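Sequence, please.
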């Protein structure tokens, strides 16, 4: 069983602790913005889930990647419960990795392994984009 516990600090800020023993501060007050908000954490969870899958799949295929970055761009509903309605996942992998191997890894993550993606699909259309960087992810970001 997985458990989570949350304690109020002040305002709309809380400290949350999972059964793993790790804690994170959550702040729903976007004006104060002292920590990630709950919906940001959902996107971070999605990025972490699918990135883990992609790294593991590429390792199994013995692809010579040196960096993996997953970025999420999301749109939320305008009315209450402002759930995510569209999420675009942008994968950047470097250096001499096969495009087909990355695209296959992304597809397998989405269709078979990523539990966060599976949950979010009930409200959000998830699309993907793959970029290959020859000089590493940091170099690509500078351009």
């Amino acid at each position: 069983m997985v458990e989570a516990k949350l304690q109020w600090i002040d305002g709309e800020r809380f400290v949350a602790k999972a059964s793993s023993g790790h804690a994170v501060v959550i702040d729903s007050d976007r004006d104060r913005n002292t920590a990630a908000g709950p919906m940001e954490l959902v996107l971070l969870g999605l990025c972490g889930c699918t990135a883990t899958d992609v790294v593991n799949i590429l390792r199994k295929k013995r692809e010579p990647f040196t960096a993996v970055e997953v970025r999420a761009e999301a749109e939320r509903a305008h009315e209450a419960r402002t759930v995510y309605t569209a999420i675009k996942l942008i994968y950047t992998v470097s250096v001499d990795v096969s495009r087909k191997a990355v695209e296959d890894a992304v597809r397998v993550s989405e269709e078979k392994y990523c539990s966060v993606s599976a949950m979010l699909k009930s409200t959000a259309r998830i699309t993907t984009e793959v970029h290959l960087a020859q000089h590493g992810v940091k170099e690509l970001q500078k351009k």
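The radius of gyration is 17 Å.
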